[in-house]
Amino acid sequence: MESRLYQHLSQFVVSGSTNNNRYSVLSKNIRDGLFDVSEELHVFLLAVTVFKLKETDASKVSGELQEILDQSLRGNQLEY
């Protein structure tokens, strides 16, 4: 799942030599308002949040949140 999320990250940010740098670039772009109306980015960030929460404490991930993650990562494309 993590590698799929990184693949999706590259759709938003192509610069940055590592995935961590890409997240930094994405954060800056968000603060600069470049994604203010991006439904696609919203779904991506929700999937990342659910994935990270699941890594730290899976008991906190509800069935609804797990379904969001599953739908977001189904295939190689985010679904809306």
Provide mean pLDDT, rounded: 79
Q: Share of helix among residues?
A: 55-70%
Q: Beta fraction of the residues? A: under 5%
Q: What gyration radius follows from the Cα positions, in whole Å?
A: 13 Å
Shape: globular
- Give the number of helices: 4
SS class:
mainly alpha
Which stretches of 5+ consecutive residues score pLDDT under 50? Answer: 75-80
How many strand segments?
A: 0
The H/E string reads HHHH
Explain what you see.
By secondary structure, this protein is an all-alpha fold. 66% of the residues lie in helices and 0% in strands. It is built from 4 helices and no strands. α1 (2-12) packs antiparallel against α3. The radius of gyration is 13 Å and the shape is globular.
Pick out its properties.
4 helices; globular; 80 residues; disordered C terminus; 66% helix; mainly alpha
List the helices and strands and how they pair.
Elements (H helix, E strand, L loop, with lengths): L1 H11 L6 H13 L7 H18 L6 H11 L7
Helix pairs in contact: 1-2, 1-3, 3-4
Short description:
The chain is an all-alpha fold and 80 residues long.
